[in-house]
UniProtKB/TrEMBL annotation:
Molecular function GO labels: nucleic acid binding
InterPro entries in UniProt: RNaseH_sf (IPR036397)
Name this protein carries in UniProt: Uncharacterized protein
């Protein structure tokens, strides 16, 4: 579907990755939070992370095609 969050890597992968990276341990202050967010964004360029994004996007595209553009989250 047009503008589908199911096919937007920021929605289906990046925010979840960043959230788990930032909050894997309790945050003690705002400075630490900012640093973890910065480190998390830098980590997104890691080749292993990018490969997982590509693999996930491919699975989602195939599910979208299988669902003929309809809802497909249940197929993933």
């Amino acid at each position: 579907p047009p503008r589908s969050p199911d096919l937007n890597p920021c929605d289906f992968y990046l925010w979840g990755h960043l959230k788990s990276f930032v909050y894997k341990r309790p945050v003690n202050n705002v400075h630490e939070l900012r640093q973890r967010i910065t480190n998390g964004f830098e980590n997104r360029e890691n080749p292993e992370v990018l490969q997982r994004v590509r693999d996930s996007l491919e699975r989602r595209l195939r599910a979208c095609i299988h669902a003929e553009g309809g809802h497909f989250e249940h197929l993933i």
